[in-house]
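Me: I keep going back and forth on a fold encoding question. No explanation is needed for now; the record alone will do.

Assistant:
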Amino acid sequence: MIRTDVAAAAEVETRIQAFLATHVLPFRARYAVSDAALDKAMAAAGGWAPLSPRLLWPYISVPNGEIATLAEAARKAFPEWWK
C-alpha cells in the first residue's frame, strides 16, 4: 500500500496508532504486562493462530476475559482485515 497509495497507508498507520493507544497500551498500565503479553493478546484477539494470551510463569498475561473485547475493537477499527 505504501508504494501505491501513500495517503491511504498514512491513514491506516494513524488508525493503528490510535487502536494501540486506546485498546492495547492500557493493558500495560492496568495489569503491568510486558510487550510480549501485549503481542500475544493481540494475536489471540485476531485469531491468527490457535493460541491463548497466556504467557508462561512467572510472566503476567492479559486476562482471557479481555480478549473478546479486544477482538471486537480490532474488527471495528480494521474491518477490511476481516473480509
Observations:
- The first helix runs from residue 6 to 31.
- Helices lie at 6-31, 35-46, 67-77.
